[in-house]
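User: quick one - fold this with pyridoxal-5'-phosphate bound?
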Amino acid sequence: MALQPGSSLKEAFPVFAHHRELVFLDNAASCQKPVVVLEAMDKLYRTSYANVHRGVYQISEAATAQFEGARQDVARFINAASAEEVIFTRNATAALNVAAASLALGLKAGDEVLLTHLEHHANLVPWQEAAKRHQLVLKFIPVTEEGRLDLSSIDELINSRTKVLAITATSNVTGTVTELDKLIPKAKAVGATVVVDAAQAAQHLPLDVQALGCDLLAFSGHKVFGPSGIGVLWGRMELLSSLPPFEFGGNMIQEVSYESASFAPPPARFEAGTPPIAEAVGLGAAVKFIQQIGWGAICDYEEGLTRYALEKLVAVPGLRLIGPSTPEARAPVFSFVLEGVHPHDVASILDGVGVAVRAGHHCAMPLHKRFGLPATTRASFTIYNTEEDVNALVSGLAKARQMLAL
Ligand code: PLP
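Assistant: Sure. Structure tokens for the protein plus pyridoxal-5'-phosphate:
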């Protein structure tokens, strides 16, 4: 059966057979898992599980082949020049920590790191810590009232002191898709290194690291229908080869004596210890699943769903949307407040009618402060969501207002 986005795709996800009425709208936090991912991991554990790389026996070689095969699947998914540019990490946060800590070692006091006001804490706090240690200056691209990047001062913000641009590809709060095509060439023109946080983008947009022209890019397995416990740090080989390791131990060395050690080339240099083996295999299956559906179909479908959801949400009385109200350059992630109702109460009432959403600051506290809010309710859609799911959300919101609005 051809896979296509929409309600028929729910059949590929066992959780929806288990919870028939579930309207799952927390996909920005984590996605459900298709059966191909569950089966790939199960099969590895049942038939050919062993630690990878160091075994000379057959099932270790089989496990290694599957693990390294997954690296190739991920390389194809993001159009990396080689599989060796793909480093498996614990999640996007771990990948972004490696990026900040390692790049900062090559910076000096007064160097500027340019971030945006949209950043998730995972691409903000590691830079705050790096700035403290290395006396770096953090600068920010502000956001407009609509939640898009305000590029009016970009030529001052990107200057000869800018050494790093670390930027989200898609906001997990506003759904904004940032203008990487404009910003990366500007940053490269002043010699800056560009780090892209693609944690949110990876489930909505095709990523082509070579076309983007960035230097490092991070995302998490669990947000692309893969398992938790695995993430990816992709880096340009020339840069990876010049970066020092971040963690030390087994698997990442070349030669060790009691006094010192030399380190393996990438990716092993950045993968100290036993890696997430079955998780890598699951991630490989997940990215192939996405490619089987096809980015053309995914983007068309999600654009239609975004358009429909925006139409319905902006018509809800008392609803304030935090983020663009037009579907262009926007992912189907909708954070909002409902006048007179606490965001957590909205989420609880929605849960009561079988609609799973998230409430809080979504690991973007400064961005919430920018909009004068401590918290929002967030409904985030993906390829298995439908217009009926939007309708269920909207009728749940009407119920919340009826029950609680002042
Ligand atoms: N960056 C963005 C934009 C995110 O939305 C998230 C997770 O919500 C992260 C980074 C961190 O991802 P993880 O918690 O999987 O490390």
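One thing worth noting: Residues 91-93, 120, 122-123, 168, 172, 197, 199-200, 220, 363 surround pyridoxal-5'-phosphate (CB under 6 Å).
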